[in-house]
TrEMBL record:
This protein's name: G-type lectin S-receptor-like serine/threonine-protein kinase
Keywords: ATP-binding, Cell membrane, Glycoprotein, Kinase, Membrane, Nucleotide-binding, Serine/threonine-protein kinase, Signal, Transferase, Transmembrane, Transmembrane helix
Domain Protein kinase: 500-665
Membrane topology, from the record: Single-pass type I membrane protein
Organism: Sesamum radiatum
Amino acid sequence: MQASITTLVLLMFVNCLGSQSQQFSSLDTLKPGDRLNSSSQLVSANGTFSLGFALFGAPGSAYLALSHTNSIYYPVWIGNREQPAFTSQDPFLTVDINGKLVIGHGINGGESIELYAGESSKQNNVSVTLLETGNLVVKEMSSSNSEVILWQSFDHPTDTLLPGMKLSVNRRTGRKRILTSWFGPDDPAPGVFTLEWDPSEDRLLVRRRGVLYWTSGKLKDYYDEWGGFRIKAFDNIPTKPDPANLNYNFTVGTSGDEEYFMYSLINVQALTPNTRNISGIRLDYEGYIYDRDRPTIAKTGSCYGYDEAHTNPGCELREQPKCRNDGQTFDLTSGDFRHVNGTPAPAVYDSNSNLSMSDCREKCWNDCECVGYTSGNQSGCVYWRGKNLEFVRSASPDNSPEAANTFVLVSTSSRQAKKRHVEIISVAVSVPVLVAMSAIVTLFVMRKIKKGKRNEVQLHDLLTLDGYTETYELESGGANNHHDLRLFTHASIQSATNNFSSDYKLGQGGFGPVYKGKTSEGQDIAVKLLSRQSGQGLLEFKTELILISNLQHVNLVKLLGFCVHGDDKMIIYDYMPNKSLDFFLFSPSEREQLNWQRRFNIVEGIAQGLLYLHKYSRLRIIHRDLKPSNILLDKDMNPKISDFGLARIFKQNASEANTNRRVGT
């Protein structure tokens, strides 16, 4: 079903565009005039690596991404990380008539993004090939029928060092090949951390915004007692008794003016089948060095600048604020800051979009009043300031890293530990008194608590949504992961909709009524009220919240939050002033507004949204209830796919699945 829908929409899209260029889906070479578009890929000869367009960051932003085929991990190389293309302009990769390797645009023109400037005098002999090593090469055939490499991606690394790729320094020109982290978890733009080779000391260096942050120590020969053989290893990267960690052959060398560091795999068979094809040293956006999202090679992101040699060797010392001391760190957890009287503590927002998560930590660390921080959803930072604030951890039973969202200042020094010990004793003495008082109060309000128990359980269930699962896990409860969804109070929704006035009613669907509203901040919203007679229950409600909160695309409706009050369940969306597509299709007076250009734009937008759901989103999703009433239109008549209550999540490698439920329209 998924493949047929995607193919149908893409065929409609391609036919409408009238493209005459040859498209590719599984070849390893691109020839002059060929186009690699968003629905095709280059695949290396044995299928290890794939090259195609992927969506990251802002909705509609497309990046040329090179990845391990069928891997769920981050791409190993991004071709246009500093200048995204846009899905609305139908980007494609090609070798143009001048022999340049460029990302062009099929719609609305747009400036081409140049990857290789073209130095060949024989443009017709230039081709682009994705090698089995993960190296994308531009080459030409010489007069003697030998291949000459003109450009290669290995000379332009992004955040991952593959086997055979070099970190290097040119002594004559000073040019360096370095790794540069992503700016954020979903933003491939250059970040604040770099990893480079220091040939004068035979060591690796991590810099943060150009300032030395961490060093690996010197690369030396060691005798490994566990394995009984000699290996090369760094002083500050301890080896482990694991075949995967003893399987690297580090090489230091000189080629002309260039001094370099590289590595290769000694024995690929020593790796497990799941990790055999995903080797690569990756510099994370927080400064950590990973072996492709598996073992942590170095905890460089945990450097605070004081003497950490006993726990995190390699961190550079630097001057500290007088209010910070050895043993203080930020702990990633979930919960909220409160005043001593129990009221929530307000946050301080910094909307500077140039601030990374690492910048947020640095600013909080240097502010003696700052006790915690988090990211402002990839747009600045959020801080909590005040020495008398206390952090109340979430009551959720889920303590996994995925559920945590706030960095809280903690101390592990003996003095702080002793202080906590005294506090624990004080609490222990007072507990019996508090229990007795609580028992009296509990008996008095037992009826009210019992009456609200079901709503409380439902609300807790919604606040601990399962985010990255298959549908069967949703139906069985799944694992609980926290999502950054705003919980609206019932009173605020009543006020926004004038107590659900009929004058504010936008329409009525099978799920229930939809109302227009305006928040106290002045934002227009649409409130979808799930009717008790709709047949949709908590599962559909959870499904819609989960999916839309994890998806970001210009052609998907934007979710603002939700509200639960008694048996009423509400989802709050961004308001779409032009209602839905059926309003125009089935109204003789409104239908005239749908000229052919507008119809084309709407069909194209729906196709882009479906392609994202089926292929490029973090979750592989089939909507299962796509119809005109579920296509909303914004003020510019751009389509937004909505209503994901009946959607189905597929496994990444699945092309079909069974269901026991009859759904759809």
